[in-house]
Amino acid sequence: MEFLTGDNEGCSGCSAPQTSCNNCGACCTGGGPVLRTQDERLIKTGKLDLSQLYTQRAGELMFNKETMKMEPLVTDQIKIKVEAESLRCRFLDNENKCTVYSQRPFECRSFKCWDSREIEQVYSSDDPLCRKDIIGGIEGLWDLVLDHHQRCSYETLGELIREVDNNRDQDAMDKVCEMIAYDRSLRASLTESGKVNEATLDFLFGRPLTTTIVMFNYKVEKDGDTDKLVSVK
Ligand code: SF4
Ligand code: SF4
């Protein structure tokens, strides 16, 4: 969620200084909230379903507004899924109303576009909800998630991509493609066997590497049966 003006006078659609929310919905179209530990109860009580969430994994590159640089996430972040193109929160209806208003996440409740003090406290509290908080106790599944997180580590991926960028290193390129193939086949085998609901994959394993590789300025194209890395710089 982002402030729509730099001076805390309210959202861009409001002409007069604000003291309360006018439900314009503008703050629900900037990528959706990060869940905080306070939101764990929403999942535990079934108000939020894992199929409505996705994970940004530790190590994924995110734009840091303070340093104005892409930087790796220190911990996992769990977010509500958004529409791909518009980045509208999936709970925002056509009349710009939140369909889960009474059960909305902590960040949404703390956000006031006319006064940033409360949300800034939330942002600086460093207490995002993690996958471990939710599924860490499920033996077998958690081990699988950890194994995937290691084998598809964004740190390793970043190092390999640097080798590709700097030296056109074929071995590094092959390793990137192997990592992407493993990520893809794990998702396919879990859903085909019926062990995992396909809609929960992005929560369990983060978004597919075929999607997120773009953060390193590459995309994946099929070359016959094999994957090929293509620069999108
Ligand atoms: S808090 Fe969000 S929905 Fe309310 S007025 Fe501000 S931008 Fe609009
Ligand atoms: S959960 Fe509701 S308040 Fe929060 S971003 Fe989505 S639509 Fe907006």
Describe this structure as you would to a colleague.
Helix content is 34%, strand content 12%. The protein has 233 residues and is α+β, with helices and mostly antiparallel strands. It folds into two domains: 26-132, no CATH class; 136-231, no CATH class. The protein is globular. The relative contact order is 0.14. Residues 3-8 have low confidence and may be disordered. The protein binds iron/sulfur cluster (SF4) (2 copies). One iron/sulfur cluster binds next to loops.
Question: How would you describe this structure in keywords?
Answer:
233 residues, alpha+beta, 2 domains, two-stranded antiparallel ribbon, two-stranded antiparallel sheet, 9 helices, disordered N terminus, binds iron/sulfur cluster
N-to-C terminal Cα separation, in Å? Answer: 27 Å
Main sheet strand line-up: 1-4
Percentage of residues assigned to helices:
25-40%
Strand content: 5-15%
Q: If you compute it from the alpha carbons, what radius of gyration comes out, rounded to the nearest whole angstrom?
A: 19 Å
Overall pLDDT:
90
Bound molecules: iron/sulfur cluster
Largest sheet: 2 strands, antiparallel
Q: How many domains, in number, for the residues?
A: 2
Q: What's the number of extended β-strand segments?
A: 6
Based on secondary structure, the structural category is alpha+beta
Low-confidence sequence ranges: 3-8
Helical segment tally? 9
Shape by Cα distribution: globular
